[in-house]
Design goal:
CATH architecture of the largest domain: Alpha-Beta Barrel
GO molecular function: beta-N-acetylglucosaminidase activity
EC number: 3.2.1.52
Family: Belongs to the glycosyl hydrolase 20 family.
Largest sheet: 6 strands, mixed
Structural class: alpha/beta
Number of domains: 2
Distance between the termini: 74 Å
Strand order of the largest sheet: 4-12-8-9-7-6
Number of strands: 19
Enzyme class: hydrolase
CATH superfamily of the largest domain: Glycosidases
Keywords: Glycoprotein, Glycosidase, Hydrolase, Signal
Strand content: 15-25%
Length: 477
């Protein structure tokens, strides 16, 4: 009874005084750990003297040598072991060394940086007097984002009399964007009291960074599984945070054709899962711009000639003949590698008229500098071999029904696509295709020009095909 009385007394006393305790963090052997004893008063500077931090994020800034940097810089870098209080409103930018024409994009990049920093502190972000000045120097005014874009940057943080100066030097605006992404990783939220938050920034850093790979991408598949635009934008946020630079948008497949094509509206009318599960030209443009401001380019893929069924069935109703063959035929194992079956009809000239219109719409939305992925995987030759229209057209050209004859037809299909794209762009450009039977080292040079076709391989790690293609001069993803 005595024990119970004491416990009740202590509980009541604690409640009456509304005592609140906070857990802090400390760096032990290069890792942040929660301290064993809580504290009732948060004095950021006093705690820091004792090696304690009010948030895990603040602890990570100076723990382990690499701080919170991700991915790690590829060049030499060092991070100081101290941080200073700051506030989003106290971060200003010096843009006097920005070339003409870059202002709009760099301002968008800065707004994204500000939004990210402000959200990490929240609504109750405590004001401070110290300031942070970010000096940005960009050498090139070229805004094109491609494989040859320089994404390198150098970031220096120097503190003078409680004033933090951040110096960013980058070849392109995209390198400057990456530098600001890194800078955001050198800033962390802290808890100052029960109702106040704050921000801290590393007071000293030297970082020299550039990517090892020109293509650092993630693929999404909206042909099989519709993704809301908001989910695609969140994916781009993740790519930007990790300095990846490609969103490979596998947009269509046998299951659905969710892209709204103004010149060919029947594609999505027949092909979308529902009228609400489509991407309008405005959606595609929004995704493209959202990505570009975050240093990510969109590579759109409309798979062909295989993986083409839903969305291609309307040809005969419009007097265009069969645009796709073997559509949803059974037993599916006889007509495709995976159901539902469907492959474009390579001997129907109207197929290329439709492709021309679709590609033209793509370029009007994504820009003439975009690189298209034209698919090219899992073409099932028995499908074409079982289609009388195709067999008759091949025989009329003196072709037989051997594997070599169908590979020739397949190669001609891709080269016709390439020619369409080149005419629309008014320049000789490259396209991307998946690795396949057509890209085997012993046959590829007969069909695909190494200077025009980029091969994206999806092979087991032990495969020697990528190495063999590289030896033959092909570019690979």
């Amino acid at each position: 009874m005595l024990f119970a009385a004491v416990w009740i007394f202590l509980y009541t006393a604690a409640e009456s005084h509304q005592v609140r305790f906070f857990r802090t963090f400390e760096c032990i052997n290069g890792q942040c750990q929660r301290t064993q004893r809580p504290v009732s008063i948060l004095d950021v500077e006093r705690l820091k003297i004792h090696g304690q931090h009010t948030t895990l994020a603040a602890c990570k800034l100076i723990c382990g040598g690499n701080g919170a940097l991700w991915p790690l810089p590829t060049g030499p870098f060092s991070i100081g072991n101290n941080y200073l209080l700051t506030h989003p409103d106290k971060i200003t930018f010096d843009l006097t060394r920005i070339p003409p024409g870059v202002d709009s994009l760099i301002n968008e990049v800065i707004n994204i940086f500000r939004t990210n920093v402000e959200s990490s502190c929240g609504d109750n972000c405590d004001a401070v007097d110290s300031s942070v000045i970010v000096h940005v120097n960009v050498e090139s005014g070229n805004l094109e984002l491609g494989w040859n874009t320089y994404e390198n940057y150098i970031l220096r943080i120097i503190t003078e009399d409680e004033e933090v100066h951040v110096h960013i030097n980058a070849t392109s605006v995209y390198g400057a964007r990456h530098a600001l992404e890194t800078l955001s990783q050198l800033i962390a939220p802290i808890i100052k009291s029960s109702d106040k938050r704050g921000l801290v920034i590393i007071d000293e850093a030297n970082i020299d960074d550039k990517p090892i790979f020109k293509h650092r991408g993630v693929m999404i598949d909206t042909g099989r599984n519709y993704l809301p635009v908001s989910a695609i934008l969140r994916t781009i946020d993740g790519l930007a945070a990790t300095k990846m630079n490609v969103l490979h948008w596998h947009a269509t497949d046998s299951q659905s054709f969710p892209l709204q094509i103004k010149s060919r509206p029947l594609m999505s009318w027949y092909g979308a899962y529902s009228p609400k599960m489509i991407y309008t030209p405005e959606d595609m443009g929004r995704i493209r711009n959202y990505a570009k401001y975050r240093g990510v380019r969109v590579i759109l893929e409309m798979d062909s000639p295989a993986h083409a069924a839903t969305g291609w069935e309307w040809g005969e109703t419009q007097g265009l003949g069969k645009l796709a063959v073997c559509v949803e035929q059974q037993p599916w194992r006889n007509f495709c590698i995976q159901p539902p079956c469907g492959q474009l009809n390579p001997v129907n000239p109207h197929v290329f008229e439709v492709l021309r219109d679709v590609y033209k719409d793509f370029f009007s939305i994504l820009g003439n500098d975009t690189v298209l992925h034209i698919g090219g995987d899992e073409v099932w030759l028995p499908c074409w071999n079982s289609t009388q229209e195709i067999v008759d057209a091949m025989q009329a050209r003196g072709l037989g029904r051997t594997t070599e004859d169908f590979l020739k037809l397949w190669g001609e299909f891709h080269n016709e696509q390439l020619e369409l794209i080149s005419k629309l762009k008014e320049r000789s450009d490259s396209v991307i295709v998946w690795s396949s039977g057509l890209t085997e080292p012993n046959v590829i040079e007969q069909y695909l020009d190494k200077n025009r076709f980029i091969i994206q391989t999806w092979l087991p790690a032990a495969s020697t095909v990528p190495e063999e293609l590289l030896k033959r001069g092909y570019k690979l993803i």
